[in-house]
Specification:
Layout: H1 9-26, H2 31-45, H3 49-65, H4 68-81, H5 90-93, H6 95-115
Length: 116
Amino acid sequence: MKTLPVCASVVCLALSANAQSVQERLNDYPTAARADYVFGCMATNGQTQTALQKCSCSIDVIASILPYEKYVEAETVLSLQQTGGERLAIFRVAPSAKLIVENLRRAQAEAEIKCF
């Protein structure tokens, strides 16, 4: 009977580092940001236990796709897009602003598919 080596040290370190970076990214959203998202989601989808579960799932999916820093950028751009005035028009027409929002929308669409 052959025994397989448990793990080559370099490979183990690489796998461990990758798993740790994924875990850190999944947990880089502060609790208050997650709660804020869930409260808003539940306001839209009903104040039920099912909505709580679906909305919690949704922010977890978004967090797995989009780092928190990018989430904050997208939320900021969306907020500025809703504000009137010529000075803030750049946030409605700039390709970079559109890309930031598109990334959030893609993450939200993935969350919708997986959770709702």
